[in-house]
Write a structure and sequence with these properties.
By secondary structure, the protein is of the alpha+beta class. It has a domain of about 70 residues: Arc Repressor Mutant, subunit A (Orthogonal Bundle), CATH 1.10.10. It has 11 helices and 10 strands. The radius of gyration is 20 Å and the shape is globular.
Amino acid sequence: MPGRKAIDTDANCLVTFLVGPNSDLIAFGHTNGFIGTVRDYTSNLVNVGIYTVSEASRLTRIPAGKIRRWIKGYYFRRGQSVRHSEAVWQADIKPLDEKLALSFRDLLELRFVDAFIKAGVSWATMRRAYANAQEQLGTTHPFCSQRISTDGKNILLRQAKEDSDVALLNLVTNQREFSRIVHDFLRELEFSGAEIVWWPLGKNRQIVIDPRRNFGQPTVAKSGVPAITLARSAKANSVETVARWYEVQRAEVRDAVEYEESLAKAA
């Protein structure tokens, strides 16, 4: 029997990893079953986070269909012709048996792009700004870089002027609006060199999403228990009881419940 490499046995975890007979890392999605065998990038996988499209949708609150289109590209009809829109960027993780898998940084990019699209920025402008930001900032994921609020702002401004994109121009030149999107987004992120972690409830709370912990699943920062495990246990038991079972603080249980309930409401 292969050995379990799982972060948790809870049925609502995203992925269970099993070490196969040839030391292959085999991924199983709890909702979709077998995902694939990970070979060439096993050593990197545990540090980048791994999410199915449905899990990425749950955490970012972006519809799964949008995520697939942005990562894979899509075909659309214009008049009598069928055209193809290329992917906005290449996901960090190669598809596993043709199933899309996203990294932690992919999640952050999704949130940033979605905010600008919702603000009315055209897809054509967003795509060109993204490509220019990748080149000039020297990274495949420019929008989850600390530099997006400084160098990135200048890149977006130049693109807005070049494309005459009024929505983007207004966003970049209006400090309040730019701060609302960019600085509020960055405020939830903690940078340490090249590493990033996401505090979805804020840095003064207990829930963290860290690609180096629990394969990037929402986790209680101090104890390392998956947030969903505490939240599910608290559905049928008191906060005090759950805290005692898992040897965590009551505040950690309450934050886990609050966070998971916020995701459920947004679904």
